[in-house]
């Protein structure tokens, strides 16, 4: 199945059947999320993988009672940095230079220039920018799930502050941004499963400038 075929197959699953997602499929989805591009390679987010049913029940309670949260095999939560700092950037760049086998100071000039741009923009800008990076990873995870014939439901419909409390994110300098239940569709209980996928026509969606 090609990527386009997989994307045509997927939809925002409204009812899941509780079937477990095999570990190798989950690992594939998470690897795609990890390999996503991010600005300056900072990856200013983490992914929490939740299979604990009690915790899923608590998340459902602050996610407008969406049943996919508890019927899913796993619930993934993207949590972005609540702000950039020179220390965080340095940690990432130090890992990069070490992995590439180049001197630690090789990225000092770029690091100084990057922090010089980011610092004056303030924490609200930082948090929003980090969240936008998380969306890129989130999108690739959805595509990877479709490739694996694993259903997924992209969710912004939850109360971030409450999820932050449940996962102890404030203490980690993180804020929940997106939730992605993974599992398998309930063919008989999902009102959306057989409805036609509708998207903007190509000639309206694409503008070519030559």
TrEMBL record:
Name used for this protein in its record: NAD(P)H-dependent oxidoreductase
Alphabetized InterPro entries for the sequence: NfsB-like, Nitroreductase, Nitroreductase-like
Domain named Nitroreductase: residues: 7-184
Residue ranges of coiled coil: none
Organism: Flavobacterium artemisiae
Pfam families: Nitroreductase
Annotated keywords: Flavoprotein, FMN, NADP, Oxidoreductase
Signal sequence residues: none
PANTHER family: NAD(P)H NITROREDUCTASE YDGI-RELATED (PTHR43673), NITROREDUCTASE (PTHR43673:SF2)
Family: Belongs to the nitroreductase family.
Cofactor(s) needed: FMN
